[in-house]
Write a structure and sequence with these properties.
- The protein is α/β, with parallel strands linked by helices.
- It has 14 helices and 18 strands.
- It folds into two domains: about 375 residues, TIM Barrel (Alpha-Beta Barrel), CATH 3.20.20.80; about 80 residues, Immunoglobulin-like.
- An eight-stranded parallel β-sheet has the order 8-7-6-3-2-1-10-9. A five-stranded antiparallel β-sheet has the order 11-12-13-18-15. A three-stranded antiparallel β-sheet has the order 14-17-16, with no helix packed on it.
- Helix 6 packs parallel to helix 7, helix 8 runs antiparallel to helix 9 and helix 11 runs parallel beside helix 13.
Length: about 450
């Protein structure tokens, strides 16, 4: 499957283009020419897939959908996005969009029909908890269930077969036919019933083989969602948290514990799964803002690219830009970024991430290998990715001082070399002696 070899680049277009945060524009604004400028950069840093969204007509942040079949007028029109996908495909880049199917905005056509016709609307059964004897702060004269009681997000009734048929056979079918997308990231996947996920799986498998379904899931057992008849992947929030806090606390035991639990070759819960890995995204503070020591960017990205999972880089974070949630506003995490100006910033981090992408592409064990822990202290950590008779070893250091470590090798009868320097790494008594720079990493491959 293509996604098993993917490195994703995450684009939040409403933020990165700097458009109005409230959709009060009356005419289409064309910003996809600006978004297309990112495509050569994405390819140049060795990413080969894009998760872009939300894209479709909405009131504000994109997850309050007005119309599933019209690209948000603040960004462009359907033809603009179609051309964007075509150019991405020409560069060998897959394109995955946001699918917001748990709820709609209050200006979605079915919800508007209920506001107008009330009990006489044929769409009353499309929404959960609809009650004309209640009310909300919007004073519609009726109540409805909302996502986390955010009443600008009205929960769809996915028990209704008509709703499911509309979302799958109408909307998803349209997206594939009109835009030739390669997958969908399912917003609030933990809110989507299993039977709905299974219906989607059956449909897309028939419609477009190798179509990727990835779910946004924060807590719980990811195996509930990642199944052959449901989703291909979910967001690995457990690893995300461990990566930054394990460095802030100089505690590699936290990261190693998560990796054992998830990936250990003889018992990890998700050892055969390809989870979606990230260090920041549009819903959490930027990694550079979460770290107490910015030098830890390097070992964290080393882990992102070499631990099991499908790595994803959030736009701008390859330059170490900062951004935090401020009160109820997510704007700080979703800033406007101009590619021409950004390319001048922090080139060393971008070059490092580019090299990680090239290494991951060259060495198959980094994409498909089993995980095996080799060494662990609070401040040093090493593991191997093993595929058949080949392996790649990653060693990282969260200490602010240089150090030396001895790592046991997975194969006693093989020779090893440093991937960066191409120098041989002698094995003595089944171990390799490595010098690790402060806040640094080293990658070793078997010959």
């Amino acid at each position: 499957m293509w996604f098993e070899d993917a490195v994703f680049y995450h684009m939040y277009p409403i933020g990165m283009t700097g458009v109005h945060r409230v959709n009060d524009v009356t005419e289409v604004e064309h910003h996809f020419d600006d978004l297309k400028k990112w495509l050569p950069h994405i390819r140049s840093i060795n990413a080969n897939a894009i998760y872009i969204g939300p894209l479709f007509e909405s009131n504000a942040h994109g997850y309050d959908t007005r119309d599933y079949k019209i690209v948000d007028r603040r960004l462009g029109d359907n033809e603009d996005f179609k051309e964007f996908v075509e150019e991405a495909h020409e560069l060998g880049i897959k394109v995955v969009v946001d699918g917001v199917f748990n709820h709609t905005g209050r200006d979605f056509w079915a919800f508007n029909d209920i506001k107008e016709k009330r009990e006489n609307s044929p769409y009353c059964s499309w929404y959960r908890g609809l009650n004309f004897g209640g009310n909300t702060a919007y004073n519609d004269g009726f109540y409805y269930d909302a996502w986390h009681n955010c009443f600008d997000l009205a929960n769809l009734n996915l028990e209704n077969e008509e709703v499911r048929r509309y979302l799958i056979e109408d909307v998803i079918n349209f997206w594939i036919d009109e835009f030739d997308i390669d997958g969908i990231r399912l917003d609030c996947a933990d809110c989507l019933p299993g039977y709905f996920q299974e219906e989607m799986r059956r449909f897309v498998d028939t419609k477009k083989p190798e179509f990727w379904l990835m779910g946004e899931v924060i807590h719980g057992d990811y195996n509930v969602y990642v199944q052959p008849n449901r989703l291909d992947s979910v967001t690995n929030y457990e690893l995300h948290k461990a990566l930054y806090s394990g460095h802030n606390d100089h505690n590699y035991f936290e990261i190693a514990h998560s990796c054992r639990r998830e990936f250990e070759e003889n018992g990890g819960m998700y050892r055969d799964k390809y989870l979606y890995s990230f260090v920041d995204n549009h819903d959490v503070d930027r990694l550079a803002s979460k770290l107490q020591n910015k030098e830890h960017l390097h070992p964290i990205y080393s882990l992102l690219y070499t631990l099991p999972g499908i790595p994803s880089v959030y736009y701008g974070s390859e330059w170490g830009i900062e951004g935090r949630k401020e009160g109820a506003s997510d704007d700080g995490m979703r800033p406007e970024v101009h590619i021409e100006e950004a390319l001048k910033d922090n080139p060393k981090l971008m070059e490092f991430i580019t090299d990680l992408g090239a290494m991951r592409k060259k060495y198959s064990p980094l994409r498909h290998g089993k995980y095996r822990e080799l060494l662990l202290t609070n401040r040093q950590y090493a593991f191997a990715r093993i595929e058949d008779d080949a392996c790649v070893i990653t060693a990282v250091n969260n200490d602010e001082n240089n150090t030396e470590i001895q790592i046991p090798v997975p194969f006693q009868d093989k020779a090893y070399y440093n991937i960066n320097t191409q120098e041989d790494c002698p094995v003595e008594n089944g171990r390799i002696l490595l010098k690790l720079a402060a806040c640094g990493s080293v990658f070793i491959a078997s010959k």
